[in-house]
Amino acid sequence: MVLKIGVIGTGAIGKDHIHRITNTLNGGEIIAVTDVNPEQAEAVVETENLNAEIFKDGHALIQSPNVDAVVVTSWGPTHEEFVLASIAAGKPVFCEKPLATTAEGCKRIVDAEVESGKQLVTVGFMRRYDQGYRALKKTIKENQIGTPLMLHCAHRNQNAPAFHGDMPITDSFVHEIDILRWLLQDDYVSVQVIQPRRTRFANDGMQDSYMILLETKEGIRIDAEVFVNCQYGYDVQCQVVGDTGIANLPEPASVVVRKDAKLSSDILTDWKPRFIDAYDVEIQEWIDATLKGEMNGPSAWDGYVVSVTVDACLEAKNSEKIIPIDLPECPSFYREAKVEV
Ligand code: NAI
Ligand code: NAD
Ligand code: ISE
After folding, report:
1. Is the pLDDT at 335 greater than 90, yes or no?
2. Together in a domain, 98 and 175
3. Given the CA of residue 155, which atom of ligand 3 is nearest to it?
4. Mutation test of ligand 1: which of 13, 17, 280, 302 has the most ligand atoms closer than 8 Å to its C-beta?
5. Atom 20 in ligand 1: which residue has the minimum CA distance?
6. Which residue spans adopt a coiled-coil conformation according to this UniProt entry (predicted)?
7. 56, 102, 312, 321: most buried, per Cβ within 10 A?
8. 261 and 146, same structural domain?
9. All residues at 6 or more sequence positions from 1 whose CB lies less than 8 Å from its CB, including other chains
């Protein structure tokens, strides 16, 4: 059986997901696409040689009886309306982060999904499918480093020419917010955001970098650097300090060269190759689960928790205070869901 998929938004990651579904993965076929910029949708149909209908907008695509499931890879501000429309149509939907650009928007999605009585939404937090993060979580779960006490993390992009405003937090740091609570099986209680001296490579008016301090319910302290114009490469770091040992997120595989009195290895420059395997596993697991009528990836609730935490980060940044993070209790609808990845 093949899952007939419609993709809304054929930009950078939309094209990537279409490519992997068409050429690398099994069980899915792209039969519908749309983009606010129609030439972009036409181009991907041609490049990937798709047998796909081009719809005038995302709503027409969702309504099509030929579309079994929806992938939302348009700009963040459009996600909420397309996810809500997919829920209303009773169709499974994979939505790239952010689920919505406000916590209220995410809550509307959570409420609509609970009301529909069926879990339909998966959010694109692909780090949960990364072998390195999975190995790190196993190390913690097996008690190899004892009880986690603190984490030192960094999210560095080589550069971010299209970034403005709070995007280092709303577009990049969201991945740490999701992955660290997944890694620790814990939730956040407070955040402080420190703004170091600004790099001269940041776009006008944008702060870069940040030092973000989170505290969890269990009292674990996290310091995370977000630096999206670091110049030297794309680099994601995570070190967990336990009471009997320390565990690091593995580095991506790279040949180590000894030459000219130097020991060196390459550093990646882009997020695409860094997480390519994770994206493949993420979308394959989504296709497989959807065909079985199941849902086991990051949920709408996870998307909501990230959004509430982002809001607290922004308040902490603007007020320069430590801001509490208050989360309502997770609805039983999500707690009783199948095994989470
Ligand atoms: P992009 O700007 O390259 O692509 C967005 C596409 O959406 C564009 O082609 C645009 O024309 C289209 N679009 C915008 N509004 C639309 C609408 N109303 N209807 C249909 N199409 C519309 O952006 P990119 O980098 O592909 O990012 C898209 C989403 O994916 C973002 O939410 C971003 O945060 C997320 N993303 C996630 C990544 C991850 O690691 N999980 C990596 C990169 C992006
Ligand atoms: P992009 O700008 O390259 O692509 C977005 C596309 O959406 C564009 O082609 C745009 O024309 C289209 N679009 C915008 N509004 C639309 C609408 N209403 N209907 C249809 N199409 C519309 O952006 P991107 O880098 O591909 O990012 C897209 C999303 O993916 C973002 O939410 C981003 O956060 C997320 N993303 C996630 C990761 C990740 O690592 N998980 C990486 C990159 C992007
Ligand atoms: C991008 O949108 C992503 O989601 C990448 O995973 C992230 O590392 C990058 O900073 C974002 O711009």
Report:
1. no
2. no
3. 8
4. 13
5. 35
6. none
7. 312
8. yes
9. 27, 291
